[in-house]
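User: I've been trying to design a sequence by hand for this structure and keep getting stuck. Would you show me what you'd pick, starting by listing the structure so we're on the same page?

Assistant: Good idea, let's start from the same input. This is the structure you sent:
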């Protein structure tokens, strides 16, 4: 189960503060429970609400009270809906992933999982409360990925716009052009005489005259003596030598450049695609991931809102 769709277990970064609180407290847990909310016949007990309220209190430093109790109740309702939606799609929490997240959280507080369990217990919070929260978010992440990943496409234009609208490094960098080329080459020795060179150029010009589109380049090369063809995908202009680089940059998509002489022969280039992008590659990749995550979060919030509107929620 991937962790790239959107950020997990938000709000748990305050566990360092939690440890300062739990070492001096020993709170009794509720012994009797009763159902307070039904979410599509899935129960939430007063114990569940109390546990979540205590957990929120020590991780957000908010004081217990009606507002925090409502926040805890709403969070539990959302999680029930997330789990139920996951069940429809066959999404179940990966317990190994749950354990890894717990271990990471414990490690950040110089503890192991057993120590984290003890620390939470001293604050009156059962470790199950934290595990349930993690499980719900893992399931929800998988639900959102399954429903929306194929619908969301973040292209170069979206990245360019985001970089132009921000102050991120690389947003104002030099443009880079990526090309899809078909290189046709007439090989010849580096010490070829003028007559040989002229013959190669004439053959190249004749082939160029018959060029109509990128689809027929291979057939043209096969039908021309001494010609070979090579496909160059995602080619950077900086990798081409002059004058080929200038000719390619000036050519439009669907055109073939005039012949140019290189140390190894006479070359022509069919320009089959051209994309101009801005900025550093790493910055662009990070920006693309952020745009994808942001869009996933928007879709996730809409989906949860719709699930809540359609759900049968009974308060007791």
């Amino acid at each position: 189960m991937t962790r790239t769709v959107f950020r997990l277990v938000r709000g748990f970064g305050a566990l360092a503060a939690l440890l300062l609180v739990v070492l001096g407290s020993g709170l009794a847990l509720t012994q009797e429970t009763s159902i307070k909310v039904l979410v599509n016949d899935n129960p939430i007990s007063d114990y569940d609400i109390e546990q979540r309220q205590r957990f929120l209190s020590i991780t957000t430093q908010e004081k217990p009270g009606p507002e925090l109790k409502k926040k805890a109740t709403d969070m539990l309702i959302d999680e029930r809906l997330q789990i139920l939606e996951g069940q429809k799609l066959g999404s179940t929490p990966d317990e190994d992933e749950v354990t890894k997240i717990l271990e990471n959280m414990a490690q950040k507080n110089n503890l192991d999982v057993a120590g984290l369990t003890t620390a939470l217990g001293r604050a009156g919070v059962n470790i199950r409360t934290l595990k349930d929260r993690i499980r719900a978010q893992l399931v929800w992440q998988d639900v959102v990925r399954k429903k929306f990943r194929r619908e969301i496409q973040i292209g170069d234009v979206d990245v360019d716009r985001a970089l132009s609208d921000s102050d991120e490094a690389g947003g104002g960098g030099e443009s880079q052009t990526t090309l899809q080329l078909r290189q046709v080459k007439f090989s010849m020795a580096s010490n070829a005489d003028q007559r040989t060179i002229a013959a190669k150029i004439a053959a190249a010009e004749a082939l160029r005259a018959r060029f109509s589109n990128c689809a027929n380049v291979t057939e043209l090369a096969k039908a021309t003596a001494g010609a070979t063809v090579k496909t160059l995908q995602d080619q950077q202009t900086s990798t081409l030598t002059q004058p080929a680089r200038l000719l390619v940059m000036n050519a439009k998509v669907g055109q073939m450049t005039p012949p140019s002489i290189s140390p190894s022969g006479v070359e022509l280039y069919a320009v089959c695609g051209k994309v101009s992008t801005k900025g550093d590659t790493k910055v662009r990749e990070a920006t693309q991931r952020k745009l994808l995550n942001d869009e996933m979060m928007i879709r996730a919030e809409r989906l949860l809102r719709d699930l809540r509107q359609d759900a049968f929620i009974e308060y007791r």
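That's my pick for every position. To get oriented when you compare it with your attempt: Strands lie at 35-39, 42-45, 175-187, 227-236, 260-262, 265-278, 313-315. Residues 281-310 form the longest helix (30 residues).
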